[in-house]
Amino acid sequence: MVKDLITGDQLLKEYNILENVLSETNLKLSTQKNLVINLNSQIDNYKTILGDKDKQFTTQKQLQDDLEKALKQANRRTTIYKIGTAVGAAATLLLLVQ
Fold this sequence. Notes:
It is a single chain. This protein is mainly alpha-helical. It starts with a helix and ends with a helix. It is built from 1 helix and no strands. The relative contact order is 0.04. The model has no long low-confidence stretch (mean pLDDT 91). The radius of gyration is 42 Å and the shape is rod-shaped.
């Protein structure tokens, strides 16, 4: 009977130890789940940032192309005005000479 009491006490101690280990393991598992959720959230944020940067780059490229077009048009107009001015000056000179 004493042997049974000693064995029962040892089993109770072992049960308590196992219960503590299981509790700590569950806490660690919960912490790891939270870390995984946090990391997945960070990945989603980085994907969003990359998407926004891609849109920003595309918009910047389009603005650059539009600006280059406008500059070419302005240069053409300036050239046409210069040619027109030269032709007008030459015509005026010819009229004055006659």
